[in-house]
């Protein structure tokens, strides 16, 4: 079923574009498109695991490409991606933390590829994780930290400027939650 992956990207991208044009509500459009696409993909493969991991990467890429195409708010798109992925995978607890972190990384990587605003995307990811936390049975702080560190890790791989933008965007409090960033690297001041 190797043919399925590009289809996930295409169907998410087109779904997001259509839904945003239809409703104008970026976050809701993304949540609905992502959740239904992932639910179907996981049902087809019968597993979240590796297939889910690849699907999430394609989903994140599709969302960011679609949102960029219609000139939408990448923060809202990022927030919707996290919520949609978590609804689609129906994961909770520790597994959900991994998924949040991985989804954040994919969104940041995709945002960098379209030269989107990494800070806005990173902040949206954390907001999405906080929003989803209570349904996952984890604290808002844990969810925010998983999103922030996934984003920071991916941004660091993009480059030091990207890492700095994400770090600056995530320093402090977002949606009333103090974001705790791990220190994977020390920037030379």
Arithmetic mean pLDDT: 89
Q: What is the global morphology?
A: globular
What is the quaternary state of this protein? single chain
- Low-confidence segments, given as residue ranges, are none
Tell me about the biggest sheet? Answer: 2 strands, antiparallel
Helix content: over 70%
Cα distance spanning the termini: 49 Å
User: Largest beta sheet: what is the strand line-up?
Assistant: 1-2
The domain tally reads 1
Beta-strand level of the residues, as a percent range? under 5%
Total of helices: 8
Please give the radius of gyration in angstroms.
Answer: 15 Å
Helix-strand makeup class = mainly alpha
Report on this structure.
With 189 residues, the protein is mainly alpha-helical. Helix content is 78%, strand content 2%. It has one domain (4-171). It is built from 8 helices and 2 strands. The protein has a two-stranded antiparallel sheet with strand order 1-2. Helix 2 (26-45) runs antiparallel to helix 3 (49-69). The mean pLDDT is 89.
Sum this structure up briefly.
This protein is mainly alpha-helical.
Task: Label this structure with key terms.
2 strands; mainly alpha; 8 helices; two-stranded antiparallel ribbon; globular; single chain; 189 residues
């Amino acid at each position: 079923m190797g043919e399925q992956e590009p289809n996930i990207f295409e169907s998410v991208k087109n779904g997001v574009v259509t839904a945003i044009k239809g409703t104008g509500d970026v976050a809701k459009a993304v949540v609905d498109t992502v959740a239904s696409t992932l639910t179907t993909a996981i049902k087809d493969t019968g597993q979240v695991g590796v297939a889910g991991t690849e699907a999430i990467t394609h989903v994140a890429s599709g969302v960011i490409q679609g949102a960029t195409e219609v000139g939408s708010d990448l923060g809202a798109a990022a927030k919707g991606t996290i919520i949609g992925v978590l609804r689609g995978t129906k994961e909770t607890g520790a597994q959900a933390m991994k998924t949040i972190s991985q989804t954040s990384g994919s969104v940041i990587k995709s945002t960098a590829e379209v030269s989107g605003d990494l800070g806005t995307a990173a902040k949206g990811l954390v907001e999405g994780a906080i929003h989803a936390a209570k349904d996952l049975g984890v604290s808002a702080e844990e969810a925010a930290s998983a999103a922030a560190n996934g984003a920071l890790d991916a941004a660091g791989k993009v480059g030091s400027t990207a890492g700095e933008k994400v770090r600056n965007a995530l320093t402090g409090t977002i949606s009333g939650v103090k974001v705790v960033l791990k220190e994977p690297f020390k920037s030379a001041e």
